Amino acid sequence: MFDLFLQFVVNGLVNGTFYALSALGLTLIFGLMRLVNFAHGEFYMMGGILGWVATDRLSMDFFTGLVAVVAVMALFGWLLDRYLIVRVRDKGPEPGILLTIGLAIFLTNTALMLVGTAPHKVAAPVSSGPILLGPVIITEVRVFAIAVSVAAIVGARLLIQKTKLGRAMRATFQDPTAASLVGINTASIYASTFALGTALAATSGMLLGSIYVAQASIGGLISLKAFVVVILGGMGNFAGAILGGLILGVAESLWGGYVQTGTVDMVGFALVILILFFRPYGLFSVRAERA
Amino acid sequence: MKFERNFLTGFLLLAALLGVFIQSDYLLHILTLVLIYAILASSLNLIVGYVGEFPLGHVAFFGLGAYTVAILGAPEVGMPITLTIPLAAFVAAAFGWLIGRITLRLNGPFFVIVTLAFAEVLRLLATNWVSLTNGPMGIAGIGHPAVLDMAPWLQGKRGFVAMGIVLAALTFFIAYRLVHSSAGRAAVTLRENNYVAQSVGIDPFRYSMFVFIVAAFLAGLAGAYYATYISFVGPEVFGFPFTATMIIIVLLGGKGTLSGPVVGAIAVTLLEEYLREFKELRLSLFGIIVMAVVLFAPDGVMGYVRHRFQSLFRRTSHA
């Protein structure tokens, strides 16, 4: 009985880490840049599909493929921001939502046309053999994915807190006018942040494509879960997003284990509604900003 | 003001004329779709265009309307369909009150996501509550109002066009009266400047709530009409594609005008049908067109018309 509970919690924590990773890009784009980005799941999807192309079609190994995918997607994000997103900046949420919905429709259907509906498998860098931790079972590839997730999360956090680029980003999102007055090229900062967000989404898509599968139609679901995680954690808060992901993962796993499997996807939405009802600042929001 | 009223009346007359003279079932089907979308988009436009909030869960009320008709009209309950349609609108309005109470306290991106969360919860409930909704299989064989059997020329699709015209007329009337009432002007003041509005005694929550409930009522009406027309309701009535379509209609037509949603409904329905020629490319092209509208016509078709022919709108510059 207790063993089963432990297994559920561990499964939840593993899924939660993946949720946190896949929401990380959105924490930047939605949390900091304030763009309600409905194409986030599509960036994730592109990471998975490109990862499949790189490892399966071009038979690269996983890490070379990852570097290539990240480079391509970062460039894609940069260009998107410089040529499309810049035109809806500071115009309220609606144009941004509509633009990214259009982008999402375009990307999903173009991907469906090119690679079809069938799921594709990204070649995993390690075997999927099981590891026994006392009563709890976890596969090697998941441990590896968690390690990469933690590295990505820590890396992104260090980039934002410690580097000059990160300082410029934080300044830009606090006050763009003041930032440009002290000589920060804000247009380039916006584009870099967007490129970073896109690259993070693609990384998680490729990584999770090696555990589950990469599918052209997955985008919508990923976007929704990522929004849940970002709001649970508080906008633009990295540590919060990680906690939000873990909470969502464990809650879903326990609900699926003890209550009903069919309604698992409902847990996240119910959590968001309840939390914003009782704590309109989000669970861990550092800024005193009301929802 | 006058232009909008004439435009809406003209649209209804044109639809009636087309409904009488068109013989092809396919064209009548398209006309019915335009009417459904026009009602749905007009209701969303009340919130987007006049309250100035952006709900992504408006489809919840559409789906609730559709399911109300399907469940109450089913043989087990056996309520006459004619009665279930207004009932569906009231059920949707009741949920509008409930959801509005929770969501209207939020703003900006939070409002957007929480309304979306409500729609998703309802979609998952409809999928999983099999005893009530028959789950993913949906409810088939929904009847049509008994009135449509009274005259032979009302049978088939023509009757649904007639019904759609009546419902659309009701929708336009309610929307027109709402927008040009003191409540509508209060809502516009809130949209333009929340602080000024509060300083002259407009309670933001109360007025947004009122418009929200009316919009939910109209969306429920659209859902009920959709359910009797398609005669099948499944969990996809709560799905994101409907949300995307109605948002695109409102923004393409031009938010904050009463004629915009109608123009948008016509344009999007025709566009979707025309793009069928392109088979697989169809949805990709649709996505590109949506992006192009945002970038090049951010105020929609009616926004452009208003800008170009300002004399027609001189008296409505506030709306």
Q: Note the overall shape of chain A.
A: globular
- Contiguous low-pLDDT stretches of chain A (5 residues minimum) are none
| Helical content of chain A (DSSP H or I, runs of 4+) | over 70%
What is the general shape of chain B? globular
Describe the structure.
With 291 residues, chain A is an all-alpha fold. Chain A contains 11 helices and 2 strands, in the order ααααββααααααα. In chain A, helix 9 crosses helix 10. The model of chain A has no long low-confidence stretch (mean pLDDT 85). Chain A has a single domain, classed as ABC transporter involved in vitamin B12 uptake, BtuC (Orthogonal Bundle). The longest helix of chain A has 31 residues. In chain A, a hairpin with a 2-residue loop joins strand 1 and strand 2. Chain B is mainly α and 319 residues long. Chain B has one domain. In chain B, 73% of the residues lie in helices and 1% in strands. A two-stranded antiparallel ribbon of chain B has the order 1-2. In chain B, helix 11 crosses helix 12. The termini of chain B are close together. Chains A and B meet through helix 4, helix 9 and helix 11 of A and helix 5, helix 11 and helix 13 of B.
